[in-house]
Amino acid sequence: MEIKTPYLLFLGDAPDQPAAKTALGVVDWRPEWCVGQLRLPGCKADAGVPDLTIGEAVAKGAKTLVIGVVNSGGVLPHSWVETIVTALEAGLDVASGLHRRLQSIPEVNAAAEKHGRALHNLRTPAEEFTTGKGAHRTGKRVLTVGTDCNVGKKYTALALEREMRERGLKADFRATGQTGVLISRRGTSVDAVIADFISGAAEWLSPSNDDDHWDLVEGQGSIWHPSFAGVTLGLLHGAQPDAVVLCHEPTRTKMRGTDYPLPSIRSTIDTILHLGRLTNPAIQCVGIAVNTSQLPEGEVARYLKGLEREHGLPATDPIRHGVGPIVDRLLACVP
Amino acid sequence: MEIKTPYLLFLGDAPDQPAAKTALGVVDWRPEWCVGQLRLPGCKADAGVPDLTIGEAVAKGAKTLVIGVVNSGGVLPHSWVETIVTALEAGLDVASGLHRRLQSIPEVNAAAEKHGRALHNLRTPAEEFTTGKGAHRTGKRVLTVGTDCNVGKKYTALALEREMRERGLKADFRATGQTGVLISRRGTSVDAVIADFISGAAEWLSPSNDDDHWDLVEGQGSIWHPSFAGVTLGLLHGAQPDAVVLCHEPTRTKMRGTDYPLPSIRSTIDTILHLGRLTNPAIQCVGIAVNTSQLPEGEVARYLKGLEREHGLPATDPIRHGVGPIVDRLLACVP
């Protein structure tokens, strides 16, 4: 079921900007869907859209209240429940990135049933998945992969979608995490599905399509991350990508949440291609997307040039320079 | 929570022997725990243990009724529910390999609560897992891996446990599937955990232990299976094995449930070691366990000799010949 737009972004009493990163991600990529934000007293985050009451948002056409903020301690404050119920009564659906399912909050569940509103839990798959089949599907697919978690895989897939659409190509971002689902109104958090169904969920996510249609699939984790490699591999097999784009953050030394050193770009690409050939023998890597925000300004160009020479691939920072060279390579390499 | 033994095996109205394979697996490895079987009219399976009523089983000391049979169509027949409730009233716990949770059957749930009995759902993890940490644990671990699903990974891990215990070693089989959980009274179906927690579940399963203690971890799936490789990889990373044993069925040409050709033994071992080095840099392969039941009798010895020459590893059929040579190699290679 698609999440209805436009959105009213609920930021609660977020203690800082990072706590609201889901809401901020939606504004980054779909500002036209965000009529405003609703902040409670003490909120330190700002999505840069107008502050609106629920009534004002409804008058501006809002269809869904998006809880795009992490609540500290995991306990849902009473003031949040009140806001959610008021939104349902005013005619909004609610989409939540909280761990707790909205249906498990009695007041919220009762209000949704009474007013016939939809409750979307972005962290809980709404679909019944099956095991992956590994059968070939029509259409073309790109998957973003990374040397680590949080190195720009979602951002890069979205930048590819934007660039390809600007070139008049049929291109759809396919979301595998909660922020991505809000941005595309559809998708699933693949890390929350039953382990047996990871590749099946990825197959559901990027079904057969026109021969000239591109799916840009948001990657998860890293094939070298000791916590999440299983999810990464199931997603790789299910997405059966024709091409991958390697995402990297050059100043990071340890893999997120671990004492493991960051793997090399080379070994990550090689291993992804080795494993990915199972479900798509023609898989290739068409570029390197680098988050250079932590590099000294003067080193960026030299660093990217070095990567291009070393790997024979276009290397670019999607935020600074866009992904034009990667799309050029993609279109040249995938028939 | 450990499942209490001994067991009364419930075979229901199993249409054939394969339908009761969970019960048969328990009898194979823990005959001393199986006081008898309970079969309904029309049952075509036979576990080779005495037919007992629930009252007779209780008198013989049974503690748990084990539903070790697949029900056709997924609907739970009323006669089964009646039997389960009678068992609970008679003082037995119930362990079930059915997809449907026992607690979701109102009569069963009520009887369990009333009589204070435990309900074990072997396909639904009872633990709350977290993400894997990848931290080194003490003790030694062996994981069975395979060129495909259903090639003897559970059987081989159990045969290793038996051989090592006979040699006076500290060795524990660690179950990752429902039959294995019944055989070891503990464990979890790793393919049923949330994808994010696969490696975390494997870490929980084989915790730190004495330096001279061996965990024999039951493998799942295959690193080259398009449906299940994610589970296989998460289990590999979480188990952080010092050694793996490769399991193979030589007459199979397609991977189970797919049109994919069986991968080679060589590429399976190489890929497992390449990926497994992440959480255990000393990982090695110490043997090949072959299910030769489908090979012509006269070819078995020559086939195994050929494998030994080709791979420089002991190759044996655990059922025909035991796993002595593999344990010899293991003890010689893992300090």
Automatic annotation (TrEMBL), chains A, B:
<dbReference type="InterPro" id="IPR035086">
    <property type="entry name" value="DgcN-like_C"/>
</dbReference>
<feature type="domain" description="D-glutamate N-acetyltransferase-like N-terminal">
    <location>
        <begin position="41"/>
        <end position="125"/>
    </location>
</feature>
<feature type="domain" description="D-glutamate N-acetyltransferase-like C-terminal">
    <location>
        <begin position="129"/>
        <end position="327"/>
    </location>
</feature>
<protein>
    <submittedName>
        <fullName>DUF1611 domain-containing protein</fullName>
    </submittedName>
</protein>
<dbReference type="InterPro" id="IPR011669">
    <property type="entry name" value="DgcN-like"/>
</dbReference>
<dbReference type="InterPro" id="IPR027417">
    <property type="entry name" value="P-loop_NTPase"/>
</dbReference>
<dbReference type="InterPro" id="IPR035402">
    <property type="entry name" value="DgcN-like_N"/>
</dbReference>
<dbReference type="Pfam" id="PF17396">
    <property type="entry name" value="DUF1611_N"/>
</dbReference>
<dbReference type="Pfam" id="PF07755">
    <property type="entry name" value="DUF1611"/>
</dbReference>
